Amino acid sequence: MEKAILTCALTGVLTNPKQYPVPVTPAQMAAEARDAFNAGASIMHVHIRSQEDGFGHMPSWDPDVAEAVVSAIREACPGVIINLTTGVVGKDISGPLNCIRRVKPEIAACNAGSLNYLKLKDDGHWAWPPMVFDNPVSKVQQFLDVMQECGVHPEFECFDVGIVRSVTMYLKAGMLKEGMGRAEYNLVMGVASGMPCSAELLALLPQWMAPDSIWQSTLIGRSEIWPVHQKTADLGGMLRTGLEDTFYLPNGDRANGNGELIAELAKCAQNAGRSIASAKEARELLNL
User: Fold this and answer.
1) What is the pTM of this model?
2) Which residues constitute the domain of residue 175?
């Protein structure tokens, strides 16, 4: 099997830094990235948080902040690959597009389909007002156009089985242009209203992917995600974790940071008999 590419998702979208150890400032993001890089992660998935409210609870699409964060990570991790988030609700996507144009990441997330984004509390009440994470084909195409303009490789985020199949249709329709790298699916499992984090389901999904594509799993949850990480490694998928996705190590203990999580992810690859891809090797595998 191919070498395993490890991606670290450094920080979340709305996770409260006053309650959880997520990095916010450029210096904090760089320090966490360095720990993950040293543990084997060649790609850093980056969300940008507001620097104005004192503790970075809210996301930011300020290109100046994005540039400061990404520059700090690149300086701390020579040769690292940046994977920039783009997820935004609604028709106005100028924020993420401006950030792509400013920082020129090698990879950017491309949310590939719409989803009722729901979570229900134990008492039967919604954790937040029900919302639609809207990603119609026209919006996907807008992102792909700017990614092509900037020489950015799209990582297609798939929250449900139908979105996996949609990406295969996008590829057949020619939406991934020459020069944008190898087709890549990111299987997001564990969102309450999306695909469950299930090893059995994971094993079925590659049959609906395009030939010669590459895939990884993003697993959201607690210690129950780790057997599915191992299944990903066993099946030849690429691996991702970080404080955006979980705070928990395989033994159920809370992680102190991203480096610990990536070290455990590397063990999954090694258990499957796979070596860890360097940043140079990851670029070659993804055809960046």
Assistant:
1) 0.97
2) 6-286
Q: Is 281 domain-assigned?
A: yes
Which residue, among 99, 46, 96, 97, has the nearest Cα to 74 in the 3D structure? 46
Two structure tokens written together for 198: 């299930």
**116 token code pair:** 């009722």
Smallest Cα–Cα separation from 171: which of 202, 132, 215, 134? 215
Helix axes 63-76, 94-103, angle to 10 degrees: 40
Query: Quick check: 33 and 69 in contact, CB under 8 A?
Result: no
Separation of alpha carbons 118 and 132, rounded Å:
8
Structure tokens at 251: 């033994």
Domain count, the chain: 1
Interacting residues of 153 by C-beta distance below 8 A, sequence separation 6+: 106, 107, 108, 147, 180, 181, 182, 184, 286, 287, 288
Contact 40, 275 (CB under 8 A): no
CB-based contact 288:81 (threshold 8 Å): yes
CATH number of residue 159's parent domain: 3.20.20.70
What is the overall mean pLDDT for the chain?
96
pLDDT band at 45 (very low <50, low <70, confident <90, very high): very high
Secondary structure percentages of the chain, helix, strand, coil, to 5: 40, 20, 45
Cβ atoms of 3 and 274 closer than 8 Å: yes
Q: Of all helices (H) and strands (E), which one includes residue 212?
A: none
Residue 1 counted as domain residue: no
**Tokens encoding 283:** 């670029």
Each residue's pLDDT tens digit, 153-175: 999 999 999 999 999 999 999 99
